[in-house]
Amino acid sequence: MKAAMYYSLDNILIEDMPMPKTGPKEILVKMKACGICGSNLMEWYTKTRAPLILGHEPSGIVTKVGNKVKGFEVDDRVFAHHHVACLTCYYCRHGAYTLCEQFSKTNLQPGGFAEYFKVPAQNLWIDTLKIPHDLSFEEATLIEPVGCCIRAIKKCEIQPSDVAVVMGAGPSGIIHTMLLQIFGASQVIATDFINYRLKAAKLLGADLTVNPETESLIDMVKRATDGRGADIVVVTAPNVNAYLAGVELCRKGGTICVFAPTQREEFMRLSPGKLFFSEIKLVSSYSTSHIETKIALELIQAKKIDPKRLITHKFPLSKTAEAFQVAAKSKECLKVVIFNDY
Questions:
Q1: Percentage of the chain with pLDDT > 70?
Q2: 235 in any annotated domain
Q3: N or C, fewer C-beta in 10 Å, the chain?
């Protein structure tokens, strides 16, 4: 079968590799669509593991079912989550599924950017969902990223009168913008340096958009909040300066959501005294679990989240390298989806 082998952001090759062998409790899926995640574009995060097959937002059709599999059949339309928890360890018993030791060790094989991928038994049992026929495979690729954002917003414990600022208006930032409205924020302010993204954020639910290069972000937030600052600041940009700005934008007693990682050698200076006297809360949110993916599917199916408005580019698997270049460099791009042309 064909697969897109990642060596670096500028070196992605279509290669032949063996079809995954499935066991009695596993299934084989023909990839129909798979989204490019922002984390796929962070070369410092991916290149150390190269060569590898990326792609963790896949949907497809079941082509082979192990003889001990229950609940799935050939030709089922499915979404499969690449990481799943054990459900029994200390962290799982405390609801911290993404911190489970098994979580990051589980994976779809070889990855979503391939003609076919295997869903291991744990992934199949815990977090593989059937896709309804009125939902396209491209739309289903948003289940995982929407799930990630749902988990983050739940951690922020949003109140109905809250004013939220979303730092970064890429796909994750716009998903947060839509979800914050759904979860009851009274006002959502989106900020980015790219006007194309700000226009998209405005169309998809932001009450106010700000380009810090042309306007004072802190002045705009202060005016919108009677001088208090934002109740919630969600940082979706993997940038230390974004986090520093977030601290300044957040009101006393507010919450800053750490949603995007920075490079491991990057640090920021932050006074514990400031946190102490302001009671600002830092909340981190990594990935998603089987809980949120189901909610994500329900919201997408109910049209409360419309993936079609986020997907701006589609590329065949044979042109994965070109797709990555567009996703990484284009200033007029949101979600990029790969489809199987083999």
A1: 100
A2: yes
A3: C
